[in-house]
User: What shape does this take?
Amino acid sequence: MRPNITVSSLDMARLEALFDELPTAHGDADFRLMDELGRADVVEPEEVAPDVVTMNSTVRFAIDQPPREFCMTLSYPKDVAFGSDRLSVLSPIGSALIGLSVGDTIEWARPGGELFRLTVLELPYQPERAGELHR
Assistant: This one.
């Protein structure tokens, strides 16, 4: 079972615009993200709970295979540089993170189909919590 997810209306509008700009044969991962966003509870930025992963949030999370912890900022593809601490929302892990709350665990697929479990451990920074409602 997948946990409930919440997405701000601003993030949703920007993600939909991103999908419109992608080449049609971009990949199955994008369809999985679109499916995930289709089940989201969409709220205004000022209504986002302070423990929800939104775009540009810094998230500490763990994956089970291989067992590792990370602290990264969920970003749009244009903001990701090689070797940075930014994670594209179009990556499998980025797609899994969007809209989750601290403590949530979700099972997600890698590009080859292998499943992994991801758990949100902490949200050191969230733009909405910081008052950045229109970033």
About this structure: The longest strand covers residues 115-125. DSSP finds three helices and seven strands in the chain. The longest helix spans residues 9-21.
